[in-house]
Amino acid sequence: MGDRLRPRSPAQGAGRFVGAAAIVCAAALAGCGDGGPRDTAGPTGPADAPATRAGAAASASPSPESSGAAPALAGPVGAGQADLDPPGFDQTSIAPQDKPRPARTPDVVYVPTPQPVVDAMLEMAEVGPDDVLYDLGSGDGRIPITAAKRWGTRGVGVEIHPLRIREASLAAHRAGVADRVTFIEADLFEIDLSSATVITLYLLPDLNLRLRPRLLRLAPGTRIVTHNYHMGDWVPQRQQVIGDSVIYYWTVPERIPPHLR
Ligand SMILES: C[S@@+](CC[C@H](N)C(=O)[O-])C[C@H]1O[C@@H](n2cnc3c(N)ncnc32)[C@H](O)[C@@H]1O
C-alpha cells in the first residue's frame, strides 16, 4: 500500500500512517499495493499546511471488508457491513473475489473526515436548504448526510467504491435524509458538476489540482471547501485549523485570474 493514495500532511508520523494504511489497504481497494508507481511515489502534502493530519490515520476505521469483522464506522452516520447483511450472515465467508470492487483503482483510499471537521466545513461553506452540495469521493456519505440533516441541503455523493455507496445509502436512510441525498457510483473526474453550488473535497493535493480547471469553470460564486489540501496558487479566501486538520475555502471568481488559466 502506498502513501500516495492516502490523504495526509507532510508532518504526519510515518509509523502510525503506514500501520493504519495497511489495514485499510488489505482488502478495501482492488489492485491496492500492486507495486505500481502510485504505490511507490511519496506523499505530497501542501507545503504550507499548518497542521498535521495524524488524526486521519489514527481514527480511520478499517473498512468492513478489510477486517472481516463488522465494525461500525466512525461518526454518527456510519454503518457496518453487518448492518447490511441478513441476521447471522457470516461475511468472513465471502471470498475476496466475490466482494464488490470499484471499476478501477481509486485515486485515494478511504479515510473519513472526523465529524467535527465535517461540521466546520459545512459551517464555513454556510450551506443551506437552497444549496446543492457535491462531495467528490464521498466515502460513507457523512458530508452530504450531515448537510441534509442539519441544514436541509440537497446533496450528491460521488464515489468510486461500491461498498462505500452501499454504506452511504444505508446511512442516508437511517438519518432520514434519503429524499435529499443521492449517491452515485462514478469516477469523480467524469461527473457533471454544473448543478453544484457547494463542492467538498478530501482527496490529495495533486487530485485537487487536476480538478481545479473544472472547478474554476463552475458558476461564479460556487463554494469549494477542502479538508487538508489546497489548490496550489489559487489562494484560499478562508482557512481554519481544527485539531489535526485544516480546512480551506474558495469561491469561484467571476473572472479566472490569468495565473489560474
Ligand atoms: C479520503 S476519502 C474521503 C471520504 C469523504 N469525502 C470524507 O471526507 O469523509 C476519499 C474517497 O474518495 C474515493 N475515491 C477515490 N478515487 C475516486 C474517484 N476517482 N472517483 C470517485 N471516488 C473516488 C475513495 O474510495 C474514498 O472513499
TrEMBL record:
Repeat found in the keyword field: no
Span list, region Disordered: 32-109
Low complexity bias spans: 40-82
Domain of life: Bacteria
The entry's keywords: Methyltransferase, S-adenosyl-L-methionine, Transferase
Entry keyword Transferase: yes
Protein name, as recorded: Methyltransferase family protein
Lineage: Bacteria, Pseudomonadati, Pseudomonadota, Gammaproteobacteria, Lysobacterales
